[in-house]
Structures are given as structure tokens and as C-alpha cells.
Amino acid sequence: xxxxxxxxxxxxxxxxxxxxxxxxxxxxxxxxxxxxxxxxxxxxxxxxxxxxxxxxxxxxxxxxxxxxxxxxxxxxxxxxxxxxxxxxxxxxxxxxxxxxxxxxxxxxxxxxxxxxxxxxxxxxxxxxxxxxxxxxxxxxxxxxxxxxxxxxxxxxxxxxxxxxxxxxxxxxxxxxxxxxxxxxxxxxxxxxxxxxxxxxxxxxxxxxxxxxxxxxxxxxxxxxxxxxxxxxxxxxxxxxxxxxxxxxxxxxxxxxxxxxxxxxxxxxxxxxxxxxxxxxxxxxxxxxxxxxxxxxxxxxxxxxxxxxxxxxxxxxxxxxxxxxxxxxxxxxxxxxxxxxxxxxxxxxxxxxx
Length: 353
Ligand code: SAH
Known about the structure:
With about 350 residues, the protein is of the alpha/beta class. Helices cover about 35% and strands about 30% of the residues.
């Protein structure tokens, strides 16, 4: 009898989830469903969870708060998957979360008109560390936390089930992975293709995206509304599109009736793609310039020449990678904005991001 009981006891400890117990009074943010547990809030770890393992998070008084992914190398020690004690972190969990996220996107977008969208925005969709972007029939994912990395198989399986026939490419080549003790990873995860090029629709514009070589997951989806604004304001205007990348602000402006757009970027490849994007939208190339130039210098030379535009768009890359570059970045932003204001015609518009 004692032997049997001892056996059961062992079994239980083996399958028991490890738990993270918080310092006194550190449970407030979790009770408000903020999904992060910082390392300083942790009093004790019971069990020996590995990176990405699922753990229960308990308040100092032992009450259950949430269930999440443990990340021993990160200051964000746990990212919560669920605040529902009955919910297990299994295949069905990821299917449910993904289905929910996709259902919301289908309400927000007319996919016949806009089919380049973020399907999963990490914590906002209850999937910390997971980004999934849709580009027509290609999905691009980033697994940015230990938990996301650990669950990649279930996540990819859920994607294949939700989007049968779509290709899946991984772009986990992001610096933040280092903070989670992870190396960069890229490559096809499902239905590989010869090239990463895919044409998406955004508000009816045709846009070339390269999911393998493009910035981020291939494209700046977060600027969709800004491009739409550029289109609305552009009618009859001469436009300078600084840091033009693949020239999608230019396409938007010309579709909105701009008289002429000058694209400016340092990258030859970006400007080449900008030309292809103009062609894909059957725009009149005589209304477009492609200027391979350093925007800092170009703005100054336009100012010196007295050349002005009805609308100037400034959508620079990030000038600061970390705190130590903050002041230099501020000077950079101030510089381009100040000179840009000087080359906007009186009554014209500066679109700055
Ligand atoms: N506005 C773009 C996104 C900008 S990405 C869009 O809507 O898609 C930043 C771009 O700035 C990149 O294409 C990069 O090549 C370019 N760039 C970075 N520094 C530059 C500089 N000093 N002068 C000109 N282009 C620069």
C-alpha cells in the first residue's frame, strides 16, 4: 500500500507544472491581465523549468494568477499565455488563439482590397512573442520569445490548419531574440518557394514584397494608414518622398492624383523595387523621379537651390538602436525635420513619422 502511494506521488511530481511565486504585492499588474512577470517580481521558482517551459504563476499567498512561458535569460521572466486556470497550453490552445485573431482581421479588412496584414500581433492577440504577417498567400512568422520558440511546432501546425495551401516563411532574424537567449533563424517552414517575392494588395494598390530580403517581415505594414493619408492629401501636389524604400508612399500619392513625386533613398535595390511598384500600378513614370541620395544631404541641397515641394514625406529608419544613441538620434530627427520644413512651399504639407 505504501509503495503504491509512493509511486503515485512520484508520478504526480513528474507531470506537475513548475511554478513561479511572486514577491509580496507584486501580483497587481497580473490581476489586471498585464501579461509580463519581471525578474525582480519573482521570489521563488519551484521545479526546474527550462527556457520556454510552461509554468504556473502564483501570488505570494499561493493564489493562482496565470500560466505562461518561462524565460530564464530575459528580464521578462514569464510571459503569460492564459489567465484562465482551466486552459491548457496545447495544440488546441494555439488553434483557438489563432482562429480568434484571424476572425478579428476578417472583420477589419476586405481581403480583396487589402491582403497584406498582421494576423497575430503578439501580446495583443494573446500570443506573447509571436508575430504573424500575411502577404497574399504567404505567411511570415517571428518567434521572438523563449515561449514562442518552444511552441513553434504547435504554432506552425495551427497555421497550416487555418491557412491550408499557404507558404510559411520564418523571419526570426531580430535582435530582441538575443535577450531571450535565442539565435536568429530564417527559412521556409512550409511549402517552400523559389523566391520570397509576392505581390500584395493594399487599399487597391499593388505592392511588391520580398519576404526573404525585405525589411522586418518584408514590408512596413504599420504605415498602411499613413500611405492612405498621403494619397488623400496628394491631389495636384509635387511630392518629395524621403527614405522612400520600395516607393509605396509614392504610389499612394500618385494614385491620389499627385502631379509629381521624387523618391529619395540610399539603396539602389529599394529604388529599383520602387520603379517596379510604379509599373505594377500602371503609373506614368514621367511623373516620378528616383533619387539615389543621402536624405540629409539632399534636403540641404534642395534648400540651397531654393527648390520647394507642396508635400514632403519623412519616414526615416530608426536612428537609435539603444539609449546611448538617443541624443545623436534626436539631433538627426531635428535636422531632417527642420530642413524639410524649409523646403515645403507656404501652405504645403509635411508628413513626418
Ligand atoms: N518610407 C518607407 C520605409 C522607410 S525604411 C516605406 O514607406 O516603406 C528606411 C529607408 O531609409 C530604407 O530604405 C533605407 O535604405 C533608407 N535610408 C536610411 N538612411 C538613409 C539616408 N541617410 N538617406 C537616404 N535613405 C536612407
